[in-house]
């Protein structure tokens, strides 16, 4: 596959960065084989199997005339994954507006140019950074997603990390077309609910691209080192998320954020959460009911949205 074509197809799906740090953007790369026009007509929302117990955690913020629900999502799931719950359905159905990290993760006109702009750095090939062992792992990983080592070599480290991060997840049956966001977005469109974004696609991709070279290499090396265990980690994370296990989410958020580096934590979670907390504070000054669905790591660990909102004097209560 020509690498420029791969970039274009990668751009056919961009999910948020939150849960598992890379999994959101990596989900876009998992769509390398998806028809770029498939998202033009949103599919009807698929039925969701009911989760055991109370299901994934849901939080609410309330004042005299408004309610804001916060719900953590997963960007890649196995077909038939059980995450539905009565409380989430009721909260979603009661909302007049729905918020995601971005309004339209399938915006071809925005995604293509962004990947073209930020993903390549032929003057600093990956092979000039990697040890022979790291190069061998990268070669195996990129072949698994249908590319050759020569095609990936001009890529910037952040993009190479995303190219390989999704490989073992897809092989284990985790698919981006089963993402929580896609289901909720289809439901919102079917119900005629206005959809809003907390940030733009350029902000998401640009944040990655502006990481230091050393930070990008640390990021890439993390996914090379955990390539063989990524699917098991995802299994544990999804099991914790679907059971509403906040402690499990805290651990996973740390392992894939600050556990990689402080720069990764700040770029993927802390800075974005601070901006979103400001937006939620403004939204709370209005009235009505809103439903906000973001990657689950944004509602877990250090610098979570709940912590940042509490620092503003805003109470976030688990439902």
**Structural class per helix/strand content?**
alpha/beta
Mean pLDDT: 85
Strand order of the largest sheet: 6-5-7-3-2-8
Question: So what's the overall shape?
Answer: globular
Order of helices and strands: HHEEEEHEHHHHHHEHHHHHEHE
Number of helices, counting only DSSP H or I runs of 4 residues or more: 15
Instruction: Report the biggest beta sheet as strand number plus sense, adding barrel if it closes.
Output: 6 strands, mixed
Number of beta-strand segments: 8
Proportion of helical residues = 40-55%
| Low-confidence runs of at least 5 consecutive residues | 1-41
Percent of residues in beta strands: 5-15%
Key descriptive features of the protein:
two-stranded parallel ribbon, six-stranded mixed beta sheet, globular, 15 helices, alpha/beta, 319 residues
Question: Can you describe this structure?
Answer:
The protein is of the alpha/beta class. 48% of the residues lie in helices and 11% in strands. It contains 15 helices and eight strands. A six-stranded mixed beta sheet has the order 6-5-7-3-2-8, sandwiched between helices. Strands 1-4 form a two-stranded parallel sheet. A hairpin with a 3-residue loop joins strand 2 (58-62) and strand 3 (66-73). Helix 1 (3-10) packs across helix 4 (108-118). It is globular. 47% of the residues are buried.
